[in-house]
What we know:
Shape: globular
Distance between the termini: 18 Å
Number of strands: 12
Strand order of the largest sheet: 1-2-3-4-7-8-9-12
Amino acid sequence: MEFGVFILAQQRGYHQTSQQVIHNAVEQTVAAEAAGFDTAWYAEHHFNNYSLCPSPLMMVSHCAGLTKRIRLGSAVCVLPLYNPARLLGEIGFADTVSNGRLDLGIGSGYQQFEFDRFGVDLKDSHSLFAEFYDVLQAGMQERIFSYSGKHLQMPPTAIAVRTIQKPMPPIWVTSGHPETLGRAISDNHNLFVTALLNGLDAIKALRERLEGIASKEGRSIDDTHFGFLRCAYASDNENEIHSYLDNARFQRRLSESLKFRRAQSDDGYLIKEEAGPNDMSLETMRSNLPVGSVNQVIDRMLEEISILKPSHIALQTQLGDFDQRTMLRQIDLWGSKIIPAIRRELRSSRSGDSRIVGEAAPA
C-alpha cells in the first residue's frame, strides 16, 4: 500500500498570503518525504482562492530540487487548458529534473470559471481530453509524431527533452466519464478516485462502479493500480479535529460552488463560502471519515481499504487555513505510527494471520 499527501494549496482568506500558501505546500512536501510518504501530489486551479497552484509541473520541478526520494505528481494537469506541444516539453523537463520521479495525473477539468478565462468551451472538455490523451501518449513514446483531430493539429514534431521514465511516466486518470476511466483501465494506466466526504456506503458504491467499468473492458479492477483521495486526521485534541473538519467542509463548499456555477465573490477573487444542498454537519463528516484517535483512524482506514481495495491512499493535508505546524506534526504522525500499523495489518491479512483486519494493534 502506497501513501501520498495531496496538496491543494488553498487560501481561506486574506490573512493568508499567496507566498505563505505556496511556502506551506513546499514545506509539507519536504516533511512528507522525511516521514516516509511515497508521493506528494499537487492540484491545478486558476483565478481564485480554491487552489493557488497554477502549474503542478512547476511544483514538481521546484520540489525535485528539495527532495531525493519521494515521487512527485500532478493531480491533475487539466489538459484542455494546455497547448499540447508545450505540455509535452514540460512533462519531459519535470521528469528529467526529478530524476524520473514524476507521476503524471491528468483530467478534463470541471470549473466553468477557469475555462472561460482560458477561452475554452467547457462543453468540449471531454472530447478535448480524449485528443490530448492521444497526443501525450504519442509524443512521449515516439521520437517524431503527428496528430490530426477535431480540436488538435500537430505537424511532424519532435519533443526535445524526453522523459527519463520509459516509455513514459506513470499516468493517472481522473474523470467523471466512465468511458474515459474505461480507456485508462484498458491502456493499463492508473486511476485516481474519491468518495468526497461520504462514508462507507459511498465507498462500496464506488467499488461497484469501478468493477462495472472494468468489466465492460473485459478486465478486473483488481488488476488496475488506483489511488483513493481521502480526508483523514488523527488526534486526541478536539480543537484540532474540529478545525480539520471545518477546513475540509470549506474545501467542498468552494468546489461545489465552482462546479455547479454557484460561486459568488465580492471582489472577483475570493469565493464566498456558502452551504449547498450537499452540505454536511461536522458531526456527520466525523462519522463518515477516518477521524479520531490514532487507533480509530487505523481501524477505519483498514475498513475502507478492505472495501475499496486501492493501491494508494492520498491524504488531504493542505485545506483552508489549517495550522501549518499542526499539519506538519500530523504528517510525521502518519509516517511514524499510522502508515506502519496499516501496512503491518495488511501484511498479516495477506499472510493468513488469524487477527481480523481492522482490529489494529496499539500504536
